[in-house]
Design brief:
The chain is of the alpha/beta class. It has 13 helices and 16 strands. The protein is globular. Bound molecules: pyridoxal-5'-phosphate (PLP). Pyridoxal-5'-phosphate (PLP) is lined by residues 57-59, 83-84, 86-87, 133, 159, 161-162, 190, 192, 203.
């Protein structure tokens, strides 16, 4: 039997997706049309936020958030070392400084106790903001982060790229969905094909703040506004003549230095169609996680994401093992393309050049020596998953 390669993650495109894209390609707008707003509204309603802004990708979403929060040269911002580099890079785009805080070895999330210690031992006002990451799909406890943010006057950008549809349970026992705007100032998502919702490339910002929403909308399109209530030039200048009572229809103003970070209409149509199936996708991801857990819990050589975590969106399924390199290469020889998430950000040469070094964040570094992400995506079949499990077990136990 020849077997298809099994990646760690992949998109699932259906005929409905294709139809939605083709229909948009045949309509009036390829970009700046109605599909964008439809997608934004559906996404906001999915995560429970007031506002959503669709953008070109998750990195652009992070950049716009940093701009909207007015990150300036020298501003210090806290984030996790176990994340995709973009979570940190957005601070650097604005000239700010990234301060990595170690992870909790049990959750792999930024350790809030370490963050608290750092804040307590630094003069008030040292840090401007924090970017917690819902790593692997597990939500950080945003209620606790909000408390810290209030006490130390920090803003919060929640990087929820791994967790659309994920949630944590708050002190009252209520489900708080990632990006619902109740705790973070801004949250961001990515629609890269390995994430839950694929749009080719794409991203989303969610917020409950009308001001931040307006700023993000404007910065997404060059810093241009068409809202006549916001215009700063007078009617005479706008019309080119005196005596008119309204702004002409063509008129717009560039009020800030923005970018072209728009999502197209056909990508929005694809993202919107995918969003409709996102709840099913999470259900299937949770099943896959349970199966891995069941099969690995008796195996001492695997330390996994053990115990079912309520609200986990399982973008990734990570295990920690000895001889990780050997397992990785063995799985590759069996056409199972496991992946490593992540090489600690602070050890990237770019961040080393900013003063970070090995030994600074021991939990992240220990985690990195052992972590490996096994295949996790809704269309992974039972047979394929069993094959993956069998290969992992046989690597350690022999056949
Ligand atoms: C994917 C990802 C990003 C960046 O998203 P892109 O759409 O690829 O730009 C940022 N943060 C995390 C945690 C991610 O996984």
């Amino acid at each position: 039997m020849t077997r298809n390669p099994i990646p760690y993650g992949r998109q699932h495109i259906t005929q409905d997706d294709i139809d939605a894209v083709v229909e948009t390609l045949q309509a009036d707008y390829l970009t700046q049309g109605p599909k964008i707003k439809e997608f934004e509204e559906a996404f906001a309603s999915y995560v429970g936020s007031k506002y959503a802004v669709a953008v070109a990708n998750g990195t652009a979403a992070l950049h716009l958030c940093a701009l909207a929060l007015n990150v300036k040269p020298g501003d210090k911002v806290i984030t996790s070392p176990i994340t995709f580099a973009a979570s940190a890079n957005c601070v650097r785009y604005c000239g700010g400084e990234v301060h990595f805080v170690d992870i909790d070895p049990k959750t792999y999330l930024i350790d809030i106790n370490e963050v608290r210690k750092l804040l307590e031992s630094s003069p008030q006002g040292t840090f401007k903001g924090i970017i917690p990451v819902d790593f692997a799909g597990r939500s950080v406890d945003m209620e606790q982060f909000r408390g810290l943010a209030e006490a130390y006057d920090l803003w919060i950008i929640e990087d929820s790229c791994h967790a659309p549809g994920g949630y944590f349970v708050d002190k009252e026992g209520e489900r708080q969905f990632c990006g619902n705007g109740s705790f973070a100032d801004l949250s961001i998502f990515s629609f890269h094909p390995v994430k839950h919702i694929a749009a080719g490339e794409g991203g989303m910002i969610t917020t409950n703040s009308e001001k931040l929403y307006r700023d993000a909308m404007m910065l997404r399109t060059h810093g241009i506004t068409k809202d006549k209530n916001a215009f700063r030039n007078d009617l005479t200048m706008a019309n080119g003549t005196e005596g008119n009572t309204d702004y002409p229809a063509w008129y717009m103003e560039m009020q800030d230095l923005g970018f072209n970070y728009r999502l197209t209409d056909f990508q929005s149509a694809l993202g919107h169609e995918q969003l409709k199936r996102a709840p099913e996708g999470i259900k299937r991801r949770r099943q896959i996680a349970r199966t891995y857990e069941e099969c690995f819990k008796s195996k001492g050589f695997i330390k996994g994401q053990s115990g079912v975590v309520e609200g986990h969106a399982y973008h990734l399924y990570v295990i920690e093992v000895e001889d990780r390199l050997g397992l990785y290469n063995y799985l590759r020889s069996q056409k199972i393309f496991a992946q490593i998430h992540y090489i600690p950000c602070h050890l990237m040469p770019y961040y080393k050049a900013q003063g970070w070094k090995e030994g600074d964040l021991p939990n992240a570094e220990t985690y990195y020596r052992k972590c490996i992400s096994l295949p996790m995506y809704p269309t992974l079949t039972e047979e394929e998953q069993n094959f993956v499990i069998g290969q992992v077990v046989s690597y350690y136990e022999g056949t």
